[in-house]
Write a structure and sequence with these properties.
5-stranded parallel sheet, Rossmann fold, 11 helices, 3 domains
């Protein structure tokens, strides 16, 4: 529906006829008051509005339409035979008109302008629908993620309790009856203990992987050197037992979450110790390199067995184990590292020349603003 507003009856008739021939429904008004009444009752898509009306200015009619919460989205095509200067056109557009034409207006130009305005409105409507659908989908995704997180925590608790029971009673049987039963019974108890321990480790790893994907608020400054020192303290027993040597250069202050970054270091260092060569002790070095204006790259290099290039992407997939059952673990560690890196707005990748050449894991982190300013 198009509302054609013009006090000049002959001109109004000609434009209405032109619009009807083009396939549009048309209503007419010769005054500003009637135009406002018809706009409120008919809700036209577009108002073709003359500036000079007998009871009020067409500019005032436009302002009232655009300021009405129910009519504000109505398209207004302002037309004038007297207010024809560039200043008049600017004033009309600033007043709220979507287009402003001056007389004489060629009929083809008028129709083309009407079509263009209606196309614009259709595009806006479709965009609004798409945005609403996207918003609804996003809200649904948020709710499902929240449900998944609650399920993960509940499942962890519910699964850990029977595992602890199994482990505790298996340990009790082992202490009480070790050597008193046949060798097969002793072996069965050992298998039960090992299975419960592995399942507990899998549940904890899965929870850490899930937590690493959650959005973080209020990231703070993190001294990576301090975080690495804490991590090495936690790994001290494993490092000592394996005879590994861990060295590191001074590391920068970044923006992030210290707990997650400690988990990232722990996974990568533990990975370097786990995949060491049989004839060499693990040597792992942590460094910072290639500082960009906004970020830093951290490297964790080892002298281990190396990784063929065809596996460089695959190793970060959840639950993928490059060496199958030959080494302990569940394939969650590197996947968790990738999630932690992504959560910090960076990425993680591996550099290795292949088997026997060791590997360097690299990840990028945003620099803390104060450190960033001081470096400039």
């Amino acid at each position: 529906m198009i509302l054609n507003v013009d006090d000049y009856e002959a001109g109004r008739y000609a434009r209405s006829r032109l619009l009807k021939q083009a396939g549009y429904q048309v209503a007419e008004a010769g005054t500003g008051e009637l135009a406002l009444e018809l706009a409120a009752s008919l809700r036209p898509l577009l108002v073709l509005l003359d500036v000079n009306l007998p009871d009020m200015s067409g500019l005032e009619v436009c302002r009232k339409i655009k300021s009405d919460p129910e009519l504000g989205s109505t398209l207004v095509l302002q037309v004038s035979a007297s207010a024809v200067t560039s200043g008049d056109r600017v004033g009309g557009l600033d007043n709220g008109a979507d287009r402003y034409l001056v007389e004489p207006v060629d009929s083809e130009v008028l129709l083309a302008t009407v079509r263009a305005l209606l196309r614009m409105r259709r595009a806006e409507t479709e965009l609004a629908k798409a945005n609403k659908a996207l918003q609804d989908a996003n809200e649904l995704l948020i709710r499902r993620n929240e449900d998944l997180q609650r399920f993960a925590y509940a499942a962890s608790h519910d699964l850990q309790e029977p595992l602890r029971t199994i482990s505790n009673f298996a340990g009790l049987l082992e202490r009480r009856y070790a050597g008193k039963l046949d060798p097969d019974a002793d072996q069965i108890l050992t298998y039960i203990q090992q299975g419960a321990s592995r399942m507990s480790t899998l549940i904890q790893g899965s929870l850490i992987y899930e937590q690493a994907s959650q959005e973080g608020d209020g990231w703070t400054s993190v001294d990576l050197s301090q975080v690495l020192e804490w991590t090495l303290k936690d790994l001290e027993q494993s490092i000592t037992e394996g005879g590994a040597r861990i060295t590191y250069d001074p590391l920068p202050t970044v923006k992030g979450n210290a707990v997650l970054l400690s988990q990232l270091f722990q996974n990568l260092i533990h990975n370097g110790m786990k995949y060491q060569k049989t004839d060499e002790r693990a040597r792992i070095h942590v460094a910072a390199r290639k500082k960009t204006p906004d970020a830093v790259e951290i490297t964790v290099s080892d002298n281990g067995i190396g990784i063929p290039s065809k596996y460089h992407q695959l190793i970060f997939a959840p639950f993928h184990r490059l060496h199958g059952g030959e080494s302990p673990g569940f394939g969650i560690g590197l996947a968790t590292c990738q999630r932690i890196g992504e959560r910090h707005g960076g990425r993680i990748w591996v550099e290795s020349a292949g088997e026997g050449a060791g590997a360097t894991f690299c990840f990028s982190l945003p620099l803390w603003q104060e450190a960033l300013l001081s470096s400039r």
